[in-house]
Amino acid sequence: MRGRDHRTFPRIRGTSPLIQQRARELRRRATEAERVLWERLRNRRLGGLKFRRQHPLGPYIVDFYCAEHRLVVEVDGPIHERQKERDALRAQHLEAYGYRVLRFRNEEVLTDIEAVLARILAACGKSSSSSQAGEEGG
Description:
This protein is α+β, with helices and mostly antiparallel strands. The protein has one domain: Endonuclease, Chain A (3-Layer(aba) Sandwich). It is built from 6 helices and 4 strands; from the N terminus they run ααβββαβααα. The chain has helices spanning 17-28, 32-41, 84-96, 106-111, 113-123, 131-136; strands at 52-57, 60-66, 71-76, 100-105.
């Protein structure tokens, strides 16, 4: 089953070369929590889902993105405690374009990765048992 019908939401446009360059830099300087999660998401390891990391969406760079389900996954470090309002506005903007945003704290990813993966799968309408199929091909 596919995710939401992409035709019902406009696309965010206007990713600049500067944003694209910044995304490349962020891929090279991932946090420990981002590296841990990426190892479990890359190469369709989670339920056969294709994720991109540090992916530009218009003026934003999202930590992880699954286009099939228009799912944005953000991993928040300590700085996000001071910018909750900014993060909420960003999430609202993305949601207005039909993206679904899941947020996890670094500690959640590092201490309970299985629960994080289960929530991601649930957001995509898949069960935790379906993650095994994606891991075999990894």
